[in-house]
Specification:
By secondary structure, the protein is mainly alpha-helical. The chain has one domain. It is 70% helix and 8% strand. It is built from 15 helices and eight strands. The chain has a two-stranded antiparallel sheet with strand order 1-2. Strand 1 and strand 2 form a beta hairpin. The longest helix is centred in the middle third of the chain and has 36 residues. It is globular, with a radius of gyration of 23 Å. The termini are far apart.
């Protein structure tokens, strides 16, 4: 493999590993803040126990997320220096905002939340976790706006061989970025909710703290259903934007080779890029593809054959990733809806088959999110900035294949160790269950 491919693999490996932690941070921060707010407003000690238990899992995940995120930015200077030179004037701005504003606020207030249990009033302490959650989501927003500029470049001019920002407002209001952020944030909320449901189901199967985990499951099921429906809705909006601004990506997602009006969708097919066709086509639904892409059943869909061969994204992995992602998303909607219904029954703990399914369903949103990023980034190839700069032109000229291969190996080993530590800690404290003695905290925080 050459330097470009190895650099792509390295960034994909570090980026996808980092993304294991980000969505859970986004979701658990908001849900932990919600739990503590319920405790402050109702005085119900069960909400305090829930805050402490699920908040502990949030902190473990947050710590690993910070560590794995730092290394990614160094790659822009080491592996992708030509990219940094060309677009640094634009791409650097949101990264600077994320580091100096969002991450700074997030770090400060999470410290206040951790060490303020015995020092702050209930309301101020709850405010600190809300500010942490808001900062976490703002951090994701700024990063996704930077990524959106790579997908749909706006507000720039090419001057002296570089892309320079001409309209910062256009970058901040990029519709691609806001839809992507909403889609991503909601998927993070759904992921956190499925983690809570899965851990709760594990304890309920063992009749451990049934009241605590039934209430946790019931709350999370509502979050999961609402968030999963929101993911589906924003995913539909995202598909419309992609079909308009990245027709080659949309064609790859659906393995649509011919340009056609009123295009239908094949639910089952096998893309054959070598022969520019689909070798197997089953379950054809007329007009659906045009309807999804343009909300018009007779709209024209641009086929892959209109795209020059050297500008086509990899069809098979993009197509399969999209199909499996949608399938998992559909499962999440149905599972959370069933969870809402069953968790409100008095004999909920007798639904052992469903509870077992929910334990094994914990990885589902993780897999769906990873596949979503594969669709987003593979579907953009061969462009690193869509229509502006190719990936092959963005890699550093001064690094060798051996250097990138060794760093890739090092990252793989290091991240493997960190991943094992994270899984060990999450499983350990998830199995341990909630603390039973919260007397000191309740007494100290009894003041207003």
């Amino acid at each position: 493999m050459n330097v470009v491919t190895l650099s792509q693999l390295q960034f994909a490996a570090t980026g996808m590993f980092h993304w294991i932690f980000v969505p859970l941070t986004l979701g658990l921060s908001i849900m932990t803040a919600w739990m503590e707010t319920k405790y402050v407003t109702t005085g119900d000690e069960m909400w305090l126990r829930m805050t402490k238990f699920w908040g502990k899992l949030f902190l473990i995940n947050f710590a690993l997320g910070v560590v794995t995120g730092i290394t990614m930015e160094f790659q822009f200077g080491l592996n992708w220096s030509e990219y940094s030179r060309f677009v640094g004037d634009i791409f650097g701005a949101p990264l600077a905002i994320e580091a100096t504003v969002a991450f700074f606020l997030e770090s400060v207030f999470i410290g206040v939340w951790i060490f303020g249990w015995n020092k702050l009033s209930k309301k101020v302490h709850a405010l600190s976790i809300w500010l942490t959650a808001i900062a976490s989501n703002v951090s994701a927003l700024v990063i996704l706006l930077a990524n959106a500029w790579m997908q749909k470049p706006v507000g720039y001019v090419i001057r002296n061989g570089r892309a320079e920002m001409s309209d910062f407002g256009a970058v901040l209001t990029n519709s691609y970025g806001w839809i992507k952020f909403t889609h991503t944030a909601l998927s993070g909320y759904a992921l956190a909710a499925f983690l809570i449901m899965g851990v709760s189901a594990w304890h309920l199967l063992r009749n451990n703290e049934s009241d605590f985990f039934t209430r946790s499951f019931r709350m999370a099921a509502v979050w999961a259903f609402v968030a999963s429906m929101g993911v589906a809705f924003t995913g539909d909006l995202h598909a419309v934007v992609i079909s308009e601004h990245q027709p080659a990506k949309f064609a790859a997602m659906e393995s649509q080779w011919e340009t056609k009006k009123g295009a239908g969708m094949h639910l089952l097919l096998v893309p054959d890029a070598a022969h520019e066709r689909n070798s197997l086509e089953l379950l054809y639904i007329p007009n659906v593809l045009s309807l999804l892409a343009h909300h018009d059943p007779n709209a024209q869909i641009t086929g892959m054959k209109t795209v020059p061969a050297d500008l086509r994204p990899p069809v098979l992995p993009t197509f399969l990733s999209f199909r499996v992602m949608v399938g998992l998303g559909t499962f999440m909607i149905l599972a959370s809806l069933v969870g809402i219904i069953l968790s409100r029954k008095a004999d909920f703990t007798d639904s052992r088959l469903f509870l077992k399914i929910m334990v094994f369903a914990i990885p589902a949103p993780y897999i769906a999110q990873q596949l979503g990023w594969l669709v987003s980034e593979l579907g953009r190839q061969p462009w690193i900035v869509y229509g502006v700069m190719k990936t092959a032109d963005a890699v550093s000229k001064s690094i060798s294949t051996t250097q990138v291969a060794l760093s890739l190996l090092g990252f793989t080993v290091l991240y493997g160790v960190l991943g094992a530590i994270d899984i060990y800690l999450l499983v350990k404290y998830a199995k341990k269950g909630p603390d039973k003695d919260l007397t000191s905290i309740i007494n100290v925080q009894g003041r207003a």
